[in-house]
Automatic annotation (TrEMBL):
Stretches assigned to coiled coil: 82-114
Compositionally biased spans, kind Basic and acidic residues: 17-26
Region (Disordered): 1-26
Species for this entry: Hymenobacter lapidarius
UniProt protein name: PAC domain-containing protein
Keywords: Coiled coil
Length: 187
C-alpha cells in the first residue's frame, strides 16, 4: 500500500494500523463556525482492510469527536488536584491545631501540678481520675490513680451519694447546711 491516498493522515498511526488496529485521541482544530478554528478532540481508529490472501488493500479511518469527554476528564483531573491540595492544607491545619491543643493541655497540667492545693480532676459518672496532682500521688505511691474510677482506685473510701447522683440547687443547699450549719446569734 502506498501513502499517496493517505497523504493527509499522520504516518505513525497509519503504519501501526497496517500491523494492528489502534485507537487514540488527538487534539485537532476544526472549522466549527464561520471559519473560526476551535480546539476539538477526536478519537481516530485506523483499521487495515485485507484481501482473501491477507494482503492489505486499504485502510478504514473512523474519527469520532470526543471533545466533551476529554474536557470533562481534564476538568475532573483539575478538580482532583485542587481537592488534594485542600485536603493537604486542612490536614496541616488540623495537625497544627492538635499540636496547639496538646501544648495548651500540657501548660494546664503543669499549672495544676504547681498549684499549692492538691487539685485532682475527675470525669464522668464513675469519677475517673483525669488529672492526679503530684502531691496526691506522693500520698498514695503504690496506687495507680490516673485513668481509674475513684471507687476502684480508693475502694476504702465511703460511698457518697452526692458523688454518684446529679447535684441540684436544693441538694447543694442541703449539703451546705449539713456540713456548715448556720451559727445562732448570741444575745
Amino acid at each position: 500500500m502506498s501513502f499517496t491516498d493517505t497523504a493527509d493522515q499522520p504516518r505513525p498511526p497509519v503504519e501501526t494500523a497496517l500491523r494492528e488496529s489502534q485507537a487514540r485521541e488527538e487534539a485537532a482544530r476544526a472549522d466549527a463556525q464561520a471559519g473560526l478554528l476551535t480546539l476539538g478532540y477526536y478519537k481516530f481508529t485506523y483499521q487495515p482492510l485485507h484481501d482473501a490472501l491477507g494482503q492489505v488493500t486499504g485502510l478504514i479511518t473512523v474519527g469520532i469527536e470526543v471533545t466533551g469527554q476529554v474536557l470533562a476528564r481534564q476538568d475532573l483531573q483539575q478538580l482532583n488536584h485542587e481537592l488534594e491540595a485542600r485536603v493537604q492544607l486542612r490536614t496541616h491545619e488540623a495537625e497544627a491545631a492538635r499540636a496547639e491543643a496538646e501544648e495548651q493541655r500540657n501548660r494546664l497540667l503543669r499549672l495544676f501540678g504547681q498549684a499549692p492545693a492538691q487539685i485532682n480532676l475527675f470525669a464522668g459518672p464513675g469519677h475517673v481520675w483525669t488529672l492526679v496532682h503530684p502531691h496526691t500521688q506522693e500520698l498514695l505511691p503504690t496506687r495507680p490513680l490516673l485513668g481509674r474510677p475513684r471507687r476502684q482506685a480508693l475502694p476504702e473510701l465511703p460511698s457518697s451519694s452526692y458523688l454518684t447522683k446529679p447535684l441540684t440547687r436544693d441538694k447543694i443547699s442541703q449539703l451546705l447546711l449539713e456540713y456548715f450549719p448556720p451559727t445562732q446569734a448570741r444575745p
